């Protein structure tokens, strides 16, 4: 069976015709297909558009299951619950698509009950369908996530079609459907093969777009009220600049959408003639080259590149951190650059007075030490003490919970704090930092590196000042003068 060639995907005509020919028959060539290819090569669009055509012309039914969705929804749970959620998601996807009002169970305790419930759903679909025999396809997007599950989940999905079809033949019934699975992944099939499959699936490799294919794809997306010849020249310039470093169709379409106005606006304003190719190239080239610096970043979709550059220049020393975490990082900077003996004087109002001579002597000592030692190590209890002094005016009470400790671990993982030892840092299995709240442990916390790990702050004064300014905190007044010089 064939279909109209005008409905083929631009740049993927051969792949779509080949996939259509494998499944359009009453008996698909295999019960499991694997479609592999690099990101941005059009795998998802190829599969969804092909199955829409198969459903219209051949009556093939299909359901799309996101392996990433099931993976995110089960983080932090045990393995059995994770597999149960994934199997129930498969049953729910096909039931809600074709039998939304049917009273069929989607609950499954194990793989046996999952196959039984799936067979009941398929038999109900076969009774309602008017075709002689129905083919049902289950499409698994981002199938590489199946490798993160139990070792038997992936072999179950690969052999699901053969197992279900065998049981359906035993049950019998009119219009018994046939089931097959399709795994869409960016990894080659060799990465999945653990030697536990009963048979090998049919693998279809999708290559990256060539320049000619991308040119045909982009030119087919001609904007409304745009000159076709000028838009074709723009696509050629875009591929000249971006194709050597990016073949992702989605990213190139995004770059085309945000840069087309920069290419077309000078012509509309009369700055260059519509047939002046060199003038248009000269004006558009800076915008196209700036796009390479923000490739795969889409935070500027509704802003031009000039405003983006000015905003980034003003934010280059600013870190986007949670509100409380900023105070935690400020406290770490103060603990690393201020001597411990000055904490009381800098952080409390009534700390006693010093003579001018005494202050001058201390400044000379601290300045000399800072020049040779740099940022000092500080203990966890000192960090928390400074932190609570800083936030006491902002919040009524901040409990010392595991969430607060996790922020210290995140700052360490981001390279903003450096622990004295990776094995003793907060967030490790040997230390949580919560024990420092106990009075009995406080007595030995200075002697026990597991109970009171040490850190060093690695950010510069400019970054610390920008973070302090974002929370309206005067950092310079809480630092010794050697930090300001």
TrEMBL record:
Pfam families noted in UniProt: AAA_16, ORC5_C, ORC5_lid
Cross-referenced InterPro entries: AAA_16 (IPR041664), ORC5 (IPR020796), ORC5_C (IPR047088), ORC5_lid (IPR048866), P-loop_NTPase (IPR027417)
Primary residence: nucleus
Annotated GO MF terms: DNA replication origin binding
A biological process term (GO) from this entry: DNA replication initiation
Keywords: ATP-binding, DNA replication, Nucleotide-binding, Nucleus
Keyword Nucleus attributed: yes
Compartment annotation: Nucleus
Superkingdom in the source lineage: Eukaryota
GO CC annotation: nuclear origin of replication recognition complex
Domain Orc1-like AAA ATPase: start-end pairs: 9-147
Start and end residues of each Origin recognition complex subunit 5 C-terminal domain: 321-479
Location of the ORC5 lid domain: 231-280
Keyword flag Ligase: no
PANTHER family reported in the protein's UniProt record: ORIGIN RECOGNITION COMPLEX SUBUNIT 5 (PTHR12705)
Family stated for the protein in its record: Belongs to the ORC5 family.
The protein, known as: Putative origin recognition complex subunit
């Amino acid at each position: 069976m064939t279909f109209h060639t005008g409905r083929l995907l631009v740049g993927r005509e051969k792949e779509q015709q080949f996939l259509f020919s494998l499944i359009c028959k009453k008996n698909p060539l295999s019960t499991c297909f694997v479609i592999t290819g690099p990101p941005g090569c059009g795998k998802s669009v190829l599969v969804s558009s092909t199955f829409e055509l198969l459903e219209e012309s051949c009556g093939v039914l299909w359901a799309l299951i996101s392996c990433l969705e099931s993976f995110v929804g089960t983080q932090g749970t045990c393995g059995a619950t994770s597999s149960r959620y994934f199997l129930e998601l498969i049953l729910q996807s096909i039931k809600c698509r074709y039998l939304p009002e049917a009273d069929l169970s989607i609950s499954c305790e194990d793989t046996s009950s999952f196959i039984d419930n799936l067979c009941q759903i398929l038999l109900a679909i076969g009774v309602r369908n008017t075709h002689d025999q129905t083919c049902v396809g289950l499409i698994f997007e981002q199938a590489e996530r199946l490798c993160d599950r139990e070792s038997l989940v992936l072999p179950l999905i690969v052999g699901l079609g053969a197992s279900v079809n065998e049981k359906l033949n035993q049950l019998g019934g009119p219009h018994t459907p046939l089931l097959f699975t399709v795994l869409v992944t960016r990894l080659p099939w060799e990465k999945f093969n653990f030697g536990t499959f009963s048979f090998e699936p049919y693998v279809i490799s999708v290559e990256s777009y060539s320049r000619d294919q991308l040119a045909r794809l982009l030119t087919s997306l001609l904007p409304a009220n745009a000159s076709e010849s000028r838009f074709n020249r723009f696509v050629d310039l875009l591929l000249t600049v971006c194709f050597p470093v990016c073949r992702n169709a989605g990213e190139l379409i995004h770059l085309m959408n945000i840069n087309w106005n920069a290419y077309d606006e000078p012509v509309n304003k009369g700055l260059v003639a519509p047939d002046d190719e060199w003038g248009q190239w000269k004006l558009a080239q800076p915008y196209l080259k700036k796009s390479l610096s923000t490739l795969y970043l889409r935070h500027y979709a509704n802003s031009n590149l000039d405003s983006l550059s000015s905003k980034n220049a003003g934010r280059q020393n600013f870190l986007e951190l949670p509100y409380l975490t900023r105070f935690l990082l400020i406290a770490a900077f103060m603990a690393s650059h201020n001597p411990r003996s000055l904490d009381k004087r800098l952080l409390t109002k009534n700390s006693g007075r010093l003579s001018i001579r005494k202050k001058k002597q201390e400044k000379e000592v601290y300045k000399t030490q800072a020049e040779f030692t740099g940022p000092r190590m500080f203990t966890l209890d000192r960090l928390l003490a400074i932190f609570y002094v800083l936030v006491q005016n902002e919040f009524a009470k901040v409990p010392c919970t595991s969430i607060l400790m996790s922020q210290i671990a995140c700052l360490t993982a981001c390279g903003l704090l450096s622990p004295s030892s990776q094995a003793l840092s907060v967030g490790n299995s040997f230390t949580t930092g919560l024990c420092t709240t106990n009075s009995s442990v406080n007595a030995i916390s200075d002697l026990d590196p597991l109970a009171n790990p040490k850190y060093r702050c690695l950010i510069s004064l400019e970054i610390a000042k920008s973070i302090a300014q974002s929370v309206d905190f005067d950092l310079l007044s809480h630092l010794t003068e050697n930090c300001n010089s």
